[in-house]
Structure prediction request, 120 residues.
Amino acid sequence: MKFEGKLIYTAHSHKTTDKSEQIMLFVLKHGYIPLDPFTVLSPGLLDKIGLDKPKRIELDVILLSYSDELWVFGEEISEGVFLEIEWWLSNRSPTTIKHIPWEELELWKDCPICQQRTSK
Prediction:
């Protein structure tokens, strides 16, 4: 597999952190490098240092600023995802945003690691 070197920020609701690995696999299978905020900055880790929601979003924006594209996963647009999209539209080209419905991730349901994660 050849990677193009694009860094893809994977935006999704905090309610779907259990799908982070499946999302990252989806991006990797497309030849890109995933940047999943819930994996890089896990909520448990941020809880340990007492980081509030505004500071967490500030960290997400820093990660966004290094990304080449924004891929929004799922149908739910949480407050955090909305702010990420808003930032992107103000600072980047709207042509570099993609929406990925959950049904597209079903293409990778043959992945045993992903099945373990999503069946919990």
